[in-house]
């Protein structure tokens, strides 16, 4: 094993063989934390193999031992915990402030587990999709990430994390944003790979193509942010886990960066799926078409085909007044009494595709009402022998004492109490954590990870020479002043001692 190698093949085999599925109530257990640590090492090794253009033996081991199913299952479990159980659990923790230290570490591990799994899946998806039976469920998860990117409610402002709830909200916001950016890689992989009909139908019905186009044409792009540096507003873009400054503002319109490129390639793949679009959706594509210029086509020649597809789509809607989809959606709107489709804040009309099964709902409701009336007319003495069947056999109500099942709220409370018990039993070795944090590089004045410090005072950290030169005008006023002050005080002390007749040596000087 080389010096920069993270895992041996035999070590990875043992870790992958031991991967198991976890239910929500099992999150935070010792087995879960052990698996979480193993997955972090496997993820780093997989990224190293990809970065050095080596054999992706970590991903192949997941295929060999059929563990992608367990990973995706745990991904959905962590997502379910974050969206459904976290609010209730935070309510329990507010009444136990003495558990906040353990809770912050344990809960962050659960939240971070979702990001680690998604990152590992994205590493595999660079070349091909993972082999799993949960492909349809993974597509549902990615749909939630597209919706999250459309809402774009991520906050990048520094907040007061003095309370556990504020700290967890900040961590959740940061991880949710990073998971959304990572999900774009998987969305591109889904769009460009051959998929089963079930998954294709789910992608079409979820309107992935329209949502990706909306993300690319939004006024406030989800992968951009504006920050203030030295009282100057600067626009940054997100790439490879870091926020970077635009060297020139023209780059925003003429240069394709990685995140934007993933979404554009996804649009190209989704355009090849035979689908039908409404007029409002075609209007969104027209906006995206106008943003694809010659400079972008030179960087990504396939965009020429995408632009041609949008032009043909726009031309077809100029020739026909309405499509079959428009007619069907008008019919659905009339049935629901809706005059206009639901609109987003920026005025873009979102038209959902209604399944043809809706036409059968009215018939099923009538049958259910008739059966319910029959049940209400039966005396109580005969309520134990109910056996009502419809003529076509599609509906069957079997008799027996009806027992009420636990409500969702009761289930959530029970599981949260179980996780709260794990938090109380969680033992934290603070010295180990402090040693680990000491190894983390500090942040530079420009917001980037700093790996170098001032050679003179060794107090201020920088990401590179350019950053140090920019900061030198202010830093030179204080650089070395503290050290010089301490040396002056030592020299004064030495003179006082010498005046008393004592012989003192300091740094080899008498």
From TrEMBL:
<dbReference type="GO" id="GO:0005737">
    <property type="term" value="C:cytoplasm"/>
</dbReference>
<protein>
    <submittedName>
        <fullName>MYND finger domain-containing protein</fullName>
    </submittedName>
</protein>
<dbReference type="InterPro" id="IPR002893">
    <property type="entry name" value="Znf_MYND"/>
</dbReference>
<keyword id="KW-0862">Zinc</keyword>
<feature type="domain" description="MYND-type">
    <location>
        <begin position="443"/>
        <end position="479"/>
    </location>
</feature>
<dbReference type="GO" id="GO:0008270">
    <property type="term" value="F:zinc ion binding"/>
</dbReference>
<dbReference type="Pfam" id="PF01753">
    <property type="entry name" value="zf-MYND"/>
</dbReference>
<keyword id="KW-0863">Zinc-finger</keyword>
<dbReference type="InterPro" id="IPR052298">
    <property type="entry name" value="ZMYND10"/>
</dbReference>
<keyword id="KW-0479">Metal-binding</keyword>
């Amino acid at each position: 094993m080389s010096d920069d190698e993270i895992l041996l093949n035999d070590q990875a085999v043992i870790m992958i063989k031991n991967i198991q599925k976890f239910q929500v109530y099992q999150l935070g257990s010792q087995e879960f934390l052990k698996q979480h640590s193993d997955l972090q090492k496997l993820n780093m090794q997989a990224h190293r193999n990809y970065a050095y253009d080596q054999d992706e033996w970590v991903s192949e081991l997941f295929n060999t031992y059929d563990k992608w199913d367990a990973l995706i299952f745990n991904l959905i479990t962590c997502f379910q915990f974050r969206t459904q159980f976290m609010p209730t659990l935070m309510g329990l923790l507010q009444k136990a402030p003495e558990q906040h230290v353990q809770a912050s570490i344990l809960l962050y591990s659960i939240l971070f587990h979702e990001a680690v799994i998604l990152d590992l899946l994205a590493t595999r998806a660079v070349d091909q999709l993972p082999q799993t039976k949960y492909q349809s469920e993974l597509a549902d998860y990615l749909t939630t990430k597209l919706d999250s990117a459309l809402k774009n409610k991520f906050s990048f402002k520094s907040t007061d994390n003095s309370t556990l709830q504020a700290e967890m909200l900040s961590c959740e916001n940061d991880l949710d944003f990073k998971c959304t950016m990572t999900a774009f890689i998987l969305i591109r992989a889904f769009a460009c790979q051959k998929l089963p009909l079930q998954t294709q139908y789910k992608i079409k019905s979820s309107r992935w193509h329209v949502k990706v186009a909306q993300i690319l044409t939004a006024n406030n792009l989800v992968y951009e942010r504006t920050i203030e540096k030295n009282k100057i507003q600067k626009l940054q873009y997100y790439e490879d886990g870091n926020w970077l400054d635009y060297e020139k503002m023209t780059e925003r319109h003429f240069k394709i960066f990685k995140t934007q490129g993933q979404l554009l390639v996804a649009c190209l793949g989704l355009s090849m799926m035979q689908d039908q679009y409404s007029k409002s959706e075609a209007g969104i594509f027209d906006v995206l078409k106008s943003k694809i210029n010659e400079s972008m086509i030179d960087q990504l020649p396939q965009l020429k085909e995408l632009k041609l597809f949008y032009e043909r789509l726009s031309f077809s809607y100029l020739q026909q007044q309405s499509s079959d989809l428009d007619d069907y959606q008008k019919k659905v709107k009339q049935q629901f009494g809706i005059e206009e489709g639901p609109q987003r804040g920026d005025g873009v009309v979102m038209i959902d595709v209604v399944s043809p099964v809706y036409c059968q709902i009215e018939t099923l409701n009538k049958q259910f009402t008739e059966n319910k009336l029959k049940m209400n007319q039966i005396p109580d003495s005969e309520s134990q022998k109910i056996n009502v069947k419809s003529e076509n056999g599609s509906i069957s109500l079997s008799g027996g004492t009806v027992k009420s099942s636990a409500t969702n709220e009761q289930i959530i409370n029970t599981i949260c109490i179980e996780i709260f018990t794990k938090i109380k039993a969680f033992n934290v070795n603070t010295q180990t954590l402090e040693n680990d944090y000491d190894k983390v590089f500090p942040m530079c004045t420009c917001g980037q990870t700093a790996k170098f410090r001032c050679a003179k005072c060794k107090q201020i950290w920088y990401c590179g020479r350019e950053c140090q030169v920019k900061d030198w005008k202010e830093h030179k006023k204080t650089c070395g002043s503290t050290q010089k002050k301490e040396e002056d005080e030592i020299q004064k002390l030495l003179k006082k001692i010498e005046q008393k007749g004592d012989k003192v040596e300091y740094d080899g000087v008498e």
